[in-house]
Write a structure and sequence with these properties.
flat, 37% helix, eight-stranded mixed barrel, three-stranded antiparallel beta sheet, alpha+beta, single chain, 18 helices
Length: 526
């Protein structure tokens, strides 16, 4: 395991974010000598149960329970809470997580839980210890390294597998332990939702007959014939050659489960989905579940940008507080998967024009049309250092710049037409990736919003700033490049989900960056 200490930008030792959260949660518990009743707990178990728990607990578990004054996690009064059954269900279905359920012996766990239903203090204590051990092992297995490639700009955001006791301590200070177990509170909400969608997909679609529907005219209500009969068989319905109400309903359900318009009209896209087979989609769901594995589970504020969906979400306390469209990188200049700490915003920013765009867009206007840089809203500089001076247009060898033998730094001045818009939001990195405003608002009306050179253009920069700072982001003057630091850095996670949970099912998206095949090789080799 890597060391838990990292260095901040000021050189001060810091802990990974999840460990800081753990310690902040535990401080009140560690600061007092008498353990108080957990929030939301029910009647305290009998003294007999506590005595049996002292006898059953050993090793580090004994230390954990002693610190809690032998207060159990799983027992409510003199019976097991419903979270015990949920824990059994989770390990029984651990195959959804890419784990081997046999590693957790769910059958034996079920027997131990059932035996405790009789209320015997000894059986309850045995179930308590067994559930805690299984829970810790399961969470640690889930927090293993993902097959997805994520660049961590700040080491405090990099995954770090917790110990068994750390897993239990975090769970023990959850506001509601039953909710924590039921909602998989140790994982990202996206992970828990996508896992549930995968389970539903396997239950409803994975066991249907596999066959190829031949191309032909669109099939819809009222259509009859051999292709309709094949469609009925493919969707698991009784034989027949008529496209009736039953087939229409089943077709709509299939379309909704595969991210297609639910119109019961079987055209090229629906036939393509039918012919790919359930295995294709199940594999895609598992790949994306592994991407979701490394998304945050902290209750603090954070931002998730999904480049595949071209949308961002603002999270607080594990809940989505706002969402908006974004514009992401073109297929030739993809937005990378990365995680970093947003530390400040820049109001009235410059835009440093990439050298290839200087040659393609600016040089012809100067050389062929005789335009002036300042009239165009640009200025040239002597270099890329902070002390570079502004060049007079006559000082520049435009022929050399046009030929590509000389690189010229040109930046666009702040203003209404500046490509950065009025503000940009920075999480410092060597990739030149950040979130920013844009004057090209019409592009947000497009469904496929992939027009940038890798950065993320946000639909409503003012609204994002309001959420980040808790107030409108205003500065006293029009001076360029005014930096406004956040009171507390906010994590930003840029991911890429080609299969994602929605309110009604699953959204399957085009793999425009070609990352699914690359990840599939690593996923298969784990």
């Amino acid at each position: 395991m890597r060391s838990i200490l990292f260095r901040s930008h000021a050189g001060i030792p810091i802990l990974p974010a999840w460990r800081r959260l753990l310690l902040s949660c535990l401080t009140p518990v560690l600061a007092i000598s008498v353990f108080t009743q957990p929030v939301g707990a029910q009647t305290r178990p009998s003294g007999a149960v506590a005595a049996e728990l002292r006898s059953e607990a050993g090793g580090k578990l004994k230390t954990f329970y002693k610190a809690r004054s032998w207060w159990p996690l799983w027992i409510r009064g003199n019976t097991l809470g419903p979270e015990a059954d949920r824990m059994v269900e989770l390990v029984e279905t651990a195959g959804l997580d890419g784990l081997d359920p046999r590693a957790f012996d769910p059958e034996d766990l079920r027997e131990v839980v059932d035996a405790a239903r009789g209320g015997s203090p000894r059986a309850l204590a045995r179930a308590e210890i067994r559930l805690s051990r299984t829970f810790a092992a399961y969470v640690r297995a889930l927090r293993r390294i993902s097959s997805a490639k994520m660049v961590y700009l700040d080491q405090e955001l990099a995954p770090d597998q917790p110990t068994d006791i750390e897993v239990l301590r975090v769970a023990g200070v959850a506001p509601s332990f039953p909710d924590y177990i039921d909602n998989m509170g140790w994982m990202s909400p996206v992970y828990a939702q996508l896992r549930a969608r995968l389970a539903d997909y396997i239950d409803n679609w994975a066991t249907l007959p596999e066959m190829t529907l031949p191309p032909g005219p669109v099939l819809r209500a009222g259509t009859k014939g051999e292709r309709v009969a094949l469609l009925r068989e493919r969707l698991g319905l009784a034989g027949g050659a008529a496209f009736d109400k039953e087939l229409a309903a089943r077709t709509k359900a299939f379309q909704a489960a595969h991210g297609l318009p639910s119109d019961a009209i079987v055209g090229q896209k629906t036939i393509a989905a039918l012919n790919r087979g359930a295995g294709y989609y199940e594999h895609l769901l598992r790949l994306n579940l592994d991407r979701a594995r490394i998304l945050p589970n902290t209750g603090k504020r954070y931002i998730i940008v999904d480049a595949a969906a071209a949308r961002l979400w603002l999270y607080e306390d594990g809940q989505v507080r706002d969402t908006m469209k974004v514009i992401v990188g073109k297929p030739t200049e993809p937005t990378p998967m990365l995680a970093g700490m947003m530390r400040y915003a820049v109001v009235n920013p410059y835009w440093n024009v990439p050298p290839d765009l200087v040659r393609k867009r600016i040089v012809p206007r100067v050389v062929e049309k005789g335009e002036k840089l300042d009239a165009m809203g640009y200025e040239a500089l002597s270099g890329w250092t902070t002390d570079a001076r502004v060049l007079d247009q006559s000082e520049i060898d435009w022929s050399a710049v046009a030929a590509g033998t000389q690189e010229l730094r040109v930046r666009q001045l702040p203003g209404k037409t500046n490509s950065m818009g009025r503000m940009k939001f920075m999480f410092p990195n060597d990739l030149g990736i950040y979130l920013h405003d844009t004057p090209e608002k019409a592009l947000f009306k497009e469904d496929a919003r992939r027009f940038s050179s890798g950065c993320v253009r946000v639909e409503d920069a003012e609204r994002l700033a309001q959420w980040l700072f808790g107030r409108p982001l205003e500065v006293p003057t029009d001076k360029p490049e005014q930096q406004v630091y956040l009171p507390q850095a906010v994590p930003v996670y840029i991911t890429y989900l080609t299969a994602a949970p929605t309110e009604n099912g699953i959204a399957f998206r085009e793999d425009v960056y070609g990352r699914d095949a690359d990840q599939a090789e690593r996923f298969a080799g784990r």
